[in-house]
Amino acid sequence: MKTINQKAWLFVIPVLLLVAFNALIPIMTVVNYSVQETFGNNLFFWQGLDWFEQLLNSERFYSALGRQFLFTGTILAIEIPLGVIIALAMPRKGFWVPVCLVLMALPMLIPWNVVGAMWNIFTLPDIGLLGYFINNVLGIEYNMTQSPVAAWVTIIAMDVWHWTSLVVLLSYAGLVSIPDAFYQAAKIDGASNFAIFRYIQLPKMKRVLTIAILLRFMDSFNIYTEPFVLTGGGPGNSTTLLSIDLVKIALGQFDLGPAAAMSLIYFAITLLVSWLFYTLMTKDDEPKRGDRI
Amino acid sequence: MAKITLSKLQHSYYADPQEPKDYALKNINLDWDDGGAYALLGPSGCGKSTLLNIISGLLTPTHGQVLFDDKNVTQLTPAERNIAQVFQFPVIYDTMSVFDNLAFPLRNRGVKEKVLKARVHEIAKMLEITNLLKIRGSRLSPDNKQKVSMGRGLVREDVNIVMFDEPLTVIDPHLKWKLRSKLKELHQKVRATMIYVTHDQTEALTFADQVVVMQDGDIVQIGTPVELFERPAHTFVGHFIGSPGMNILPCEINNGAAFFNGKKIQLEGPIKPDIEGTAEIGIRPEFISLSKSGIEAKVRKVADVGRHKIVEAMLGDTRISVIVEGELPAQGSSVYLNFQPNQTRIYHDGWIASEQKR
Amino acid sequence: MIIELRNITKSVGANIHIKETNLVLKTGHFNVLLGATGAGKTSLIKLMAGLDKSTSGQILMDGKDVTKLSTQKRNISLVHQFFVNYSHMSVFENIASPLKVVGMAKSEIEDRVEEVAKILQLQDMLKRRPNELSGGQQQRVALARALAKESKAVFLDEPLANLDYKLREELRDRLPEFFADRGAVVVYATSEPEEALLLGGYTALMDDGRITQFGATSDIYHNPSNLMSARVFSNPPINVTHITKRGNQAQMGDQAQWKLEGDAAKLQDGNYTIAIRPNHISPVKTLDNFVAITGKVQITELSGSESSAHFLAGSNNWVSLASGVHSCEIGQNHQFYIDPSHCFYFDSNGKIVA
Fold first, then answer.
1. CA–CA min distance B95, chain A (Å)
2. Cβ A185–B135 below 8 Å, yes or no?
3. Coil, helix or strand for B318?
4. Given Cys at both, which of A41, B163, C130, C201 links C29, Cβ 3.0 to 4.6 Å?
5. How confident is residue A1, by pLDDT bands cut at 50, 70 and 90?
6. Does residue A30 belong to any structural domain of this protein?
7. Co-location of A80 and A195 in the same domain
8. Is A2 in Cβ contact with C65 (below 8 Å)?
9. Pairing state of beta strands C185-190 and C30-34?
10. What's the pLDDT at C14?
11. Highest mean pLDDT among B171-180, C283-292, C298-307
12. Residue C3: CB partners within 8 Å, gap ≥ 6?
């Protein structure tokens, strides 16, 4: 009975196919475009690294990239602490647990474009509930089609509303997994509430927070639909994030080559930052069994 | 350090307890001296952890009082009671070094760095973890984590009581023994009142000067390890302590004499008056010997457990365990059992009903 | 049914989990794997169960090579230290699940479940969910599942470790009976020497990924073939020290000397390592040939029926364990007595010589 079962390879094929279709082929297509120029009619001309060079010297790219980082940085700075605070405030036991969880999950169930449209209408100064309230009741001038500040405040508020729940749910999962003994021990040790947060809750939430930050970073860095529906990148270019700019170039101007080059750089940045995050956050994780003293 | 008094303690986890079975603790009265080593022993669900949490202040009892040195502390928080507790699973602050872990309870109470440093080093030395002081908590093995947890309990000089809630659960058997002796040694050095909760008789008996045996929310017996072993007040204690536990054999009481299987059995002393009819004989396997004559029984099973041998004999439906040294009888053969009279006792309704000769 | 391991090794990266191991496990008695945590018991069970692939070597079941065979095809059962039950199923369904998988008829399943439930005293709980049961009951459900499935090999990996002391005693007592007539090879991993002795059967002593000795349990307890086996199979730890043999005299430092008898007397003169179990060091001199040794008492423990004392003699820590109540003052010097007829003598390689 000395047979090596070769059938096992068959089971790997679906995954290989999936990865090929899902990642490999699109990326190769983009790589292909990024080094060529086309004027339609399926005519292509070899361009080398020109597009990359051009892009990396263009002010437009850097300002879009800057806006992208500003957006992602801002929403992370708001959503992560806010999510943790809400999770800490949520009940751990009893009747209200499922209610809170469902309420928290609701925003995440709404499709991106609907969220954009919702907030668009919500903030209209004449008929939108929020827009009307701010303009006419609070008496603050607020119109995101005219004021870049208002536009920024709106897209950030929208993203915070839409995605803080994710951070909340992940942090909450981390919190409920802490055994009671830890809280009891801390009480007995005379620890303050802040000390409990700093030395018990935060360390135990670290793993899920790493995931939350990564997910929120990748998602917000690649965000397109919501701000596009909400502001269309305006007023002017004030909310033209990298992704919106990319689509403008690719579809608006049909500059496939530069757009492809931009995609690749975009992709590289996302990958690099995610990797940096992950390595920094997990560098002093719990050691394996064998390394214990 | 303090004397502890528990007065008429009752506790129920229900908001509106009705019957006795709604109570996790039924009626607990206890006095514990300053500086003693005590154990709470019982099977899971007997209420020992509830009692522990009431003493530490993590739970407020439904009725009754907890007194430290005659001062009522029933409503005080754990921190206000000045107690320390070591939990079943080691609690360690992962991101802190071992030193910071040990210093934590002192820092929270505003102890000066210089005093704190000396104290931490002293405790680390006692626990033999001085070489680990700079290491992060998360890197420790379970037994070292538990040592640090113990250290955090012992580091404050002003603690009233140190409590241990099954602290050796996650420890490897060959290390259990080491930590247990360490604990014993620490008790002898620091002389704090210590309470040790466990379901493991070996741990309870080896650690404590006084063991409190609990069952179903009640205290069954309080005594020294030797008392509990030699003269259990209740068949439950006889069964629970000892391995194998005490043999409990059905018998008939007639005119102040006990008959087992028709034979009169010599007892430690007189049976309490007014007991007639069915009762039980309690005798430990250690106090039965095999000889040429006596009560006849069939050998059902024999086991060599290294230090000694266990013979399981059947007399009708009654199973009798005997610990023997020397030659083992063959399985299925007949043996004759002799009960050591001064270790043979009568139990009635579960409670001891014979008196020792003076 | 016979399980045979031939030159099995397992390493992960640079870590060797199992060193070259040969072992033949038979049916009709318990096969105990005894060793401390990390000795390789679980790794070995995983290899036999097919949950892990060996790095080299062969595993045979009834003479057939199953090294490459998947767990599903090996027809085995496994019970873990942490009871694994399906929480959404009743106890009945839990026990029946492995039978349903093999497509057994419904009436037959009912009979079988009833039968094992009776053995494990679970009859009254068949309709309940596992999370309504106590830890001991849950573990019995897990055991019942392993019993119901007529597997050819049953692996029990410290199944009683998380249970209450008395319950452990009861199940330990009955487990061998449950499996007695099943015709399955039963492998039981434990880290407690006492448990191995109570289960009887055969025992493989493990240390650092190696089997140091294999044989009938009480036989290898009384006759360790090497120093490591003597250490593994002793709780409290066995006392180990060195002696010099000259003529028929054994000299232990300047603390004690005694006359050697039997095989020990025939050894070449020289240095030997000796091991004495704690129960062969007594605080009282019960026999004339006992050898006195003076030690400073460090800790005493009294467990009702037994007294143990830890003492320091020379540079060694010693443990004595005696039945009955013996009290010694801590910090004081006290006489202890070694029973020389129960010493194990080892050569410099740790191999037993007398």
1. 7
2. no
3. strand
4. C201
5. very low
6. yes
7. yes
8. yes
9. parallel
10. 83
11. C283-292
12. C23, C24, C25, C48, C59, C60, C61, C153, C185, C187
Listed residue (A110, A170, A150, A176) closest to A230, CA to CA? A150
CATH number at residue A102: 1.10.3720.10
Question: CATH class for domain C2-232?
Answer: alpha beta
Residue of C nearest to B226 (CA): C304
Angle ∠(B345,B346,B351) on CA atoms, nearest 5:
110
With CB atoms and an 8 Å threshold, state whether B77 touches A184.
Answer: no
Interchain contact, C330 vs B188, CB within 8 Å: yes
Nearest chain C CA: its distance from B272 CA (Å): 26
Same structural domain for residues A211 and A278? yes
Residues spanned by CATH 3.40.50.300 within chain C? 2-232
Statement to judge: residues A95 and A184 lie in one domain: yes
Q: Of the candidates B45, B225, B308, which has its C-beta nearest C302's C-beta?
A: B225
- The parent domain of residue A25 ranges over 8-48
Residues constituting chain B: 358
Q: Is the CB of residue B330 less than 8 Å away from at least one CB of chain C?
A: no
Asked if A33 and A42 count as a contact pair (C-beta separation under 8 A), the reply is: no
Work out the minimum CA distance from A7 to partner chain B, whole angstroms: 43
Please give the DSSP secondary-structure letter assigned to residue A142.
-
The residues in B 28-87 lying below 8 A from A, measured between CB atoms, are 56, 58, 77-79, 83-85, 87
Establish whether the linkage from the previous residue to B244 is cis, with ω within 30° of 0. yes
Chain B residues inside the 8 Å CB shell of A284:
136
Model confidence band, residue A2 (pLDDT cutoffs 50, 70, 90): very low
A1, part of any domain:
no
A76 and A14 belong to one structural domain: no
Question: Domain check: are A38 and A67 in the same one?
Answer: no
Looking at chain C, the number of H-run helices and the number of E-run strands are 8, 20
Residue with tokens 């973890």: B129
Closest CA to B152 of A191, A284, A194, C299: A191
* Closest-CA residue of chain A to B103: A189
CATH 2.40.50.140 domain locations along chain C: 239-346
- C271-292 tens-digit pLDDT: 999 999 999 999 988 888 899 9
Q: Residue C25: beta bridge partners?
A: C3
CA A104 centroid distance within chain: 18
Q: What pLDDT is recorded for position A76?
A: 93
Chain B from 190 to 219: CB within 8 A of any C CB: 199-202, 205-206
**Which chains, if any, share at least 3 CB pairs under 8 A with chain A?**
B, C
Q: List CB contacts (< 8 A) between A188 and chain B.
A: 56, 78-79, 83-85, 105
Choose the mutation target among A1, A5, A11 for the interface with C, i.e. most C CBs under 10 Å. Answer: A1
The residue in chain B having the minimum alpha-carbon distance to the alpha carbon of residue A192 is B108
Q: Is residue A158 part of a domain?
A: yes
Number of domains in chain A: 2
Verify that A88 and A39 share a domain, yes or no. Answer: no
Query: Could you tell me where the DSSP H helices lie in B173-230?
Result: 173-190, 201-207, 225-230
CA C346 – CA C353 distance, rounded (Å)? 5
Scanning A271-290 for CB atoms below 8 A from C yields 289-290
CATH 2.40.50.140 fits C239-346, yes or no: yes
Cβ atoms of B161 and A198 within 8 Å: the answer is no
Q: What ipTM was reported for this prediction? A: 0.81
Q: String of b and e for C288-313 (b: at least 16 CB within 10 Å)?
A: eebbebebebbbbbbbbbbbbbbbeb
CB–CB contact A181 B139 (8 Å): no
| B185, B286, B303 ranked by CB distance to C305: nearest | B286
Q: Tell me the domains of chain B and their CATH numbers.
A: 4-235 (3.40.50.300), 245-352 (2.40.50.140)
Q: Dig out the tokens for C295 from the structure.
A: 């030690």
